[in-house]
Amino acid sequence: MPLFARLEQRIVDGERNGLVDDLDAALREKPPLEIINETLLAGMKTVGELFGSGQMQLPFVLQSAEVMKAAVAHLEPHIEQHSEGVRQTKGRIVLATVKGDVHDIGKNLVDIILSNNGYDVVNLGIKQPITTILESADEHGADAVGMSGLLVKSTVIMKENLEEMNSRGVADRWPVLLGGAALTRGYVENDLAALYQGQVHYARDAFEGLRLMDRIMA
Ligand code: B1M
């Protein structure tokens, strides 16, 4: 099987043996972000489809996710840093997967892209209640708050989180960046924007997250 097809299949099969050798070979042909976006994410998409149609059981999804994480971790040091010379931060964001949700591959990609483009990222991890997110944003003097979630339930949690930020009177303090597979642009830009008293933005992927942060900080 050709190299990139094999790498994609490794994600689907959750196969770690030979992963590093294949990644190193891939790095000689393409930049790391291209490998992540074109090859590894295609594998995760197939995993999602197989799981959604009942053809793959959860433990195997977890195995695929672990291989995906290992692959991204191996590629990350090779991603070009876009922050010039003496590192000057473009801004700081507190990032978390919302309460009740364990999905973190997308959030961690957002962390990598923002960190490699001059932002300070405080990554709180998974299943984070809004109280913790806001305490951290306050403690770190964050310029924005980012929430990720992949479950349909998480879209409801995000709405509750924004309502909580309204009622605490901190909406004008922190623009909010939202992302994750269960969200739609319409839901964020119409429904959530109508209720949140500050700025709320939808990012389809990590690169849109970067563009939005650049706009927020401009
Ligand atoms: Co689960 N899972 N999962 N899962 N899982 C989904 C989300 C699901 C759609 C699968 C399916 O049914 N087809 C489904 C949700 C259905 C729903 O809610 N309607 C589902 C389910 C049901 C579950 C469980 C409930 C299963 C169970 O226990 N019976 C359970 C939930 C546990 C919980 O959260 N409490 C569960 C568990 C798991 C694993 C642990 C096995 C594993 C996660 C491992 C991990 O993350 N460490 C897992 C996985 C891997 C998936 C799928 C297959 C792949 C997710 C992924 O990593 N995609 C997923 C299927 C799918 O999404 N179609 C599925 C790759 C990743 C890069 O994409 O995170 O969307 P994503 O990130 C993108 C963008 O969305 C965006 O940028 C990234 C790309 O650049 N983005 C942001 C994301 N966050 C952002 C934040 C931003 C900006 C952009 O700014 C802040």
From TrEMBL:
Belongs to the vitamin-B12 dependent methionine synthase family. The lineage of its organism: Bacteria, Bacillati, Actinomycetota, Actinomycetes, Pseudonocardiales. The chain holds residues 638 to 855 of 1187 of the full protein. Catalyzes the transfer of a methyl group from methyl-cobalamin to homocysteine, yielding enzyme-bound cob(I)alamin and methionine. Subsequently, remethylates the cofactor using methyltetrahydrofolate. It comes from Prauserella oleivorans. Residues 90-218 form the B12-binding domain. Residues 1-87 form the B12-binding N-terminal domain. This is Methionine synthase. It comes from the Bacteria. Modular enzyme with four functionally distinct domains. The isolated Hcy-binding domain catalyzes methyl transfer from free methylcobalamin to homocysteine. The Hcy-binding domain in association with the pterin-binding domain catalyzes the methylation of cob(I)alamin by methyltetrahydrofolate and the methylation of homocysteine. The B12-binding domain binds the cofactor. The AdoMet activation domain binds S-adenosyl-L-methionine. Under aerobic conditions cob(I)alamin can be converted to inactive cob(II)alamin. Signal peptide: none annotated.
